[in-house]
Amino acid sequence: MLKNGKYSAWFRTSLGEGTGVVMLKDGKITGGDTVLAYAGSYSQAGDDFTVDISTERHSPGQLSLFGIDKVDLTLMGKSTGITASCRGTTRQEPGMAFEAIIIRIAD
After folding, report:
1. Is pLDDT above 80 for 69?
2. 8-state DSSP, 47
3. Please, are residues 40 and 52 in contact by the beta-carbon 8 Å criterion?
4. CA atoms within 13 Å, Cβ hemisphere of 92
5. Nearest to 65 by CA among 92, 98, 38, 31
6. Does the structure show a pLDDT above 90 at 4?
7. CA nearest 4: which of 32, 26, 31, 30?
8. 88, 72 in Cβ contact below 8 A?
9. What sign does the dihedral 85-104-52-60 (CA atoms) show?
10. Is the pLDDT of residue 107 over 80?
11. Is 0.85 surpassed by the pTM of this model?
12. What is the tens place of the pLDDT at every residue in 45-64?
């Protein structure tokens, strides 16, 4: 089960890889990286979870891993409590797969 807290995030698409930080708190997820902010929600059933999250550019810089800045992702995954992995797609680029791994950062 995902615990409230801060997580480091690694993610990739066919266009490349990236890293960021996300904060989970009572069903809400926020975070960002050097050029994008993320916001959305998540729900859990035991070790399984789903995420609906959107991205928006906050600073100039490199292209996003989707080639566009505003995307709406739907992800499904499993958690061990400290780490979690998930996969999904975005409505704007439905044929492009997205994978992510998050690791909880100690308080």
Report:
1. yes
2. T
3. yes
4. 13
5. 98
6. yes
7. 26
8. no
9. negative
10. no
11. yes
12. 999 999 999 999 999 988 88
Write down how long the chain is.
107
CA angle 42, 11, 65 (to 5 degrees): 105
**Dist CA 23 CA 3 (whole Å):** 10
SS (H, E, C) 23-37: EEECCEEEEECCCEE
User: Which among 50, 39, 49 is positioned nearest to 81, based on CA atoms?
Assistant: 49
CA-wise closest residue to 86 among 54, 56, 52: 52
Neighbours of 32 (CB within 10 A): 18
Question: pLDDT-derived band of residue 42, with 50, 70 and 90 as boundaries?
Answer: very high
Residue 2 has pLDDT above 80, yes or no: yes
Distances (CA, A) of 55 to 12, 13, 32: 14, 15, 8
